[in-house]
Amino acid sequence: MAADLGELLVPYMPTIRVPKTGDRVFKSECAFSFDSPESEGGLYVCMNTFLGFGREHVERHYRKTGQSVYMHLKRHVKEKSTGAAGGAIPRRRNGKVFIDLELNRDFNGEDYEYEDEAKLVIFPDHFEIPLPNIEELPALVTIACDAVLNSPSAYKKQEPESWEEEIQVSRHARSLRQLDNGVRIPPSGWKCQKCEMRENLWLNLTDGAVLCGKWFFDGSGGNGHALEHYRETNYPLAVKLDTITPDGADVYSFEEEEAVLDPHISEHLSHFGIDMLQMQKRTENGNHTDNNARPRVSEWEVIQESGMKLKALYGPGYTGIKNLGNTCYLCTVIQVLFSIPDFQRMYVGNLQRIYDYSPLDPTQDFATQMAKLGHGLLSGQYSKPPMKSELIEQVMKEEHKVLNWYQQKGISPRMFKAMVSRGHPEFSSNRQQDAQEFLLHLINLVERNSAGSENPSDVFRFLVEERVQCCQSRRVRYTQRVDYCIQLPAPIEAATNREELLAYEAKWKDAEENMRAPPEPVRARIPFTSCLQAFTEPENVPDFWSSALQAKSAGVKTSRFASFPEYLVVQIKKFTFGLDWVPKKLDLAIDVPDFLDLNRLRATGLQTGEEELPDLMPPIVLPEDTRDNSTGSGDSPEIDEVAVMQLAEMGFPLEACRKAVYYTGNMGPEMAFNWIIAHMEEPDFAEPLTLPSMMDPGPSTSDSPMGATPLSNSPPEESIAILTSMGFPRTHSIQALKATNNNLERALDWIFTHPEEEESDVLSDMADTEPNDNAFFNANSHSDSTLSPDRETLGPRVKDGPGRYELFAFISHMGASTMSGHYVCHIKKEGRWVIYNDQKVCLSERPPKDLGYIYFYHRLSSS
Fold first, then answer.
1. Is 822 noted as a catalytic residue in this protein?
2. What is its EC number (predicted)?
3. What is the pTM of this model?
């Protein structure tokens, strides 16, 4: 028999591999479905690629790759019986098999035992060889089988793949000298001290200077002022500001010219007022330990509808998602997305085509994993009600065991999370995250992976018209930008129970001073109309540069909808940053309506009598040059000296008062006072007023902005892909990026303000431009038809229509900050509200619409 098995395996020996260090063995989940060794058909692991396949998908892999030898794994789960003396039988009967296998279900190890079975299967004849079979199998096959059975989880191999294992501790970390200069870094509002750039900012750990980077390892662009600062001072270490979390931060050593580890990063950051240890205390275990934190009014119970006898739901569309530990943000976003027909049609409707054309490693393919997730949620295969016989048997037992049957098996998003979070410093961690940030991250991935095909995220995309007015010249500029989510402020001052809130504040302070029990908390109730009004009100534009004055001035901005999306996402801005850098949650309730009419917020464009600002960009001026320009050279600016003296009498520096009056357009001391309050923390607050002169005072009809320096280098391909995925032509996208120093946000503005550029420069790049690149959805039509390529106006694909909506889903957050707590979602299906709380899916009795964090509306038909 041994000779027979050896001869049988000889033709397949070259395809059988022994897992090496770095190989991931997927022996707990199918690459195309959520089948596992616990499923009825078990799991087949390819002995060459080590990918796992359910019985339904293993034939596809065999036909595509020609790999014939698979290891079939089957786990039998059954209730644990007791011996004569009452002792429990050991948890596993076959301890040699399936070592370190992760379960897809939550079984109580005290109540269940596993009986494992493994065998080799040779396709296409399905010849089976039971394992272990050391004596009869060739040595190589035996070693390979043993290595597969004893290999760790594929996901555990991924977890340590981070910089912490690749980079070294900086030699400057222990002996770093920090200047005692009193610098304190606020939790937001940063900008480069030399060029006022607000992206890719680095904090020097020696003197606290905040400066922009250049093309570092993270791919972000900048003007290199952080590196220049090092060359001037030799201060070696800097930390990237937007990477600081309770677990660490990204540190770069200019002297060592690489990313490094700083074991003393917490101490170094606390020198500048950033208390990482306090951040950790406030977020660990999902609890906020601030002594001043006020308890919420049964938030956890209300949102989860605790205490109510909720009816469990099963079947297609009612499948729960297992929480892997702080992944409820992912679960809720996915549940909502796959309740939208466009996502269902794209990924589940095209399931077979996606699977047939999937790459050799489907675990790393976005479309495949989205299709797998959608099918798992919508097929009903993993959401089956308990059998009557099983239910009766459980009713006869203890009450706590009955509840287990009502919690469906659900699906585990482990493979999906590993794929979509790869390379992301936050989503690849095990910490709680912001659901809104993950939604935008996922939409970005959908955009990138939908080139040349249907893009389901088109349903969220809309255009925002921004009207900016120079307060001094009264001229205006209209621009449009792409957005996917409208963020509404929550004005506490508009609360309908304001008197009750003031009384509660007084009682709280009195109880705190007299060491008494705090009063019953009161939650602010804010009308939704007040949130909309706060969104539409004019806001000050920081660091506004007026092209009419060719200098900084006061500017105000108002926003309106240039188009309405098919599905409107509304986020209530409930979170704010405290001085301790911890995002804190405002305790409030919003009376969100079921039906919403936003037609009055549609943009109108340039109005009669309005004069546009010249189409000029600020000149690129070195910081040294700006210091040489004084107000004495050329024409002196007009400044209301009476207002200046009124402000100076309040104790503000004279030069700061002059700047405040000038930048607010001589509109009076009150406006200037507001400017002072908003800018008094800036390092150049009290420096003399400087007006940068233009390098070329020629006419403004030039195609390129005055003072702009053309770039000869090609923009990053990733940035080009993002713009083209929005419907912009490749040629136009490249021009926009080159004209704006590869800044995506400015490139979008450039495209909208230079629609005629595309016609003239289509020579060399015409071959690279897809015919579909010029197609987009009419922003003035209610249909979804595409426009012809010769259309004069260019823009992203939007599905415009009337601004009347109906609420169909909302995501709620429980807890004190986005770094802790729990998310659940409610979705309206078949005319009834359903609560999705991880694996528990039930009919909602009292949906807490007023406590939501993110709301989803779908457009009503125009009929």
1. yes
2. 3.4.19.12
3. 0.69
